[in-house]
Write a structure and sequence with these properties.
This protein is an all-alpha fold. Helix content is 82%, strand content 0%. It has 17 helices and no strands.
Length: 403
């Protein structure tokens, strides 16, 4: 809590709000497939289409949302997204027709695409450069605190009434919206987009992004890492179920271990990670994640799987928070939202990963799959290094031109 006091009150509110809304979302969304199978006549294929629609629109819409925040201001977009978010979850709780659920999850993905990059850009706007590594580390911790609590609450509320978790999630979003409206009234701020919208256009933002080779390398590296990370939710539960007697139980233990380890060690390692250079942090983290997947390929019992997950989680602690730091360093003040939005393209790895992993798992076995996953993630080092060197080169060039 002491670390939070060093940030702007709006930044502190957004960090605490991240815990609330992530917990609220995860008390309902992971159970959406179960809810649809119990309360509707939808078949598994249609349910899968509904579930996949949210991540799809989120990835497609992230760049648009980030750019709109640069053009028209962070506040308007965040308030609109939170209100629609709340209405979406009211819809989940009351809808009956399959096409309605499909539409609702599509809008849910767009809200995420609009709110996430915009809130990250705003936090960066209001935080001094020297504190931003800590900021994004705390944000990542907040996400995992919510991820630890949310599913447990969802299981509890789901046992009371099938749609109760959706109503509670909606209420949390509405309360978050009201609290932010009050906070912005108490602490009025000058935002991107409110004074400089005439200086940039959507087309000019696209031109800047498309020419940034460093951003391209970093996004590709993020896709490689996410291709690997997606296996935790797609092929890993299948592999454990098929290869171990208590595989399903072990999978639950691994997920809880991952979330709790991030929450505990993120805070303990924060000062250490702040001292590392960006590239060293990315390399250390990527190597550790790759070692974790390599460990999965060799694992045949609980101990090895648990140790492998711990190593993988350590790598995650280094890599994932640096994603925000990278984008903040690449972006100009006028296009910060646009860059955070473009960073959402890394989620392509979460789409392609389950499909590619499923093909490999079906064609070979878990050992081969995770060995290849380790190689794919390790290749991210080449892309991170290329991106970092390109970024440094561009920074030196701009300084030379300015002088």
């Amino acid at each position: 809590m002491k670390a939070l006091k060093t940030f702007h009150p709006i930044v502190t509110s957004l960090l605490l709000g991240t815990v609330m809304v992530r917990a609220a979302s995860l008390m309902s969304m992971p159970f959406l497939a179960i809810y649809l199978s119990k309360t509707t006549a939808m078949n598994p294929v249609l349910i899968g289409l509904v579930i996949g629609m949210g991540p799809l629109t989120s990835t497609v819409g992230s760049f648009i949302g980030g750019t709109l925040s640069d053009l028209f201001g962070r506040k308007k977009l965040m308030f609109s997204a939170l209100f629609i978010y709340g209405m979406v979850f009211v819809g989940f709780a009351t809808a009956k027709a399959p096409w309605v659920f499909l539409l609702l999850n599509a809008v849910n993905g767009l809200c995420r695409a609009f709110f996430e990059p915009t809130s990250q850009a705003l936090m960066s706007d209001l935080t001094p450069q020297e504190k931003r590594v800590r900021l994004f580390s705390l944000r990542y911790t907040a996400i995992n605190v919510g991820a630890t609590v949310g599913p447990l609450l969802g299981a509890l509320f789901g046992s009371v009434a099938a749609n109760l978790a959706f109503f509670i999630t909606a209420a949390v979003y509405f309360m978050y919206l009201i609290s932010l409206i009050i906070l912005f009234m108490i602490f009025p701020i000058q935002q991107a987009g409110e004074t400089s919208a005439h200086k940039i256009t959507f087309a000019s933002a696209i031109r800047v992004i498309s020419k940034d080779k460093a951003l391209f390398y970093f996004i590709l590296a993020g896709i490689m890492v996410n291709l690997g990370y997606s296996q935790i939710e797609s092929t890993l539960p299948q592999y454990l179920k098929d290869s171990l007697a208590n595989g399903v139980l072990l999978y639950s233990v691994l997920l809880s271990l991952n979330a709790v380890t991030v929450v505990v060690l993120q805070i303990l390692l924060m000062r250490f990670t702040e001292k590392l250079s960006m590239l060293k942090g990315l390399i250390v983290g990527t190597v550790l994640m790759s070692m974790g997947y390599f460990g999965f390929s060799l694992s045949h019992g609980w101990v090895m799987f648990i140790l492998s997950m711990l190593v993988l989680t350590l790598g995650e602690i280094f890599v994932f928070p640096l994603g925000g730091v990278i984008i903040d360093r690449l972006a100009s003040e006028k296009l910060r939202g646009t860059y955070f939005g473009a960073n959402g393209l890394r989620s392509i790895g979460f789409f392609a990963g389950p499909w590619l992993g499923g093909l490999l798992f079906d064609a070979t076995n878990g050992s081969v799959l995770y060995l290849m996953t380790a190689g794919v993630v390790l290749f991210g080092i080449v892309l991170y290094t290329s991106g970092y060197r390109t970024m440094v080169k561009n920074e030196k060039k701009r300084k030379k031109e300015a002088s």
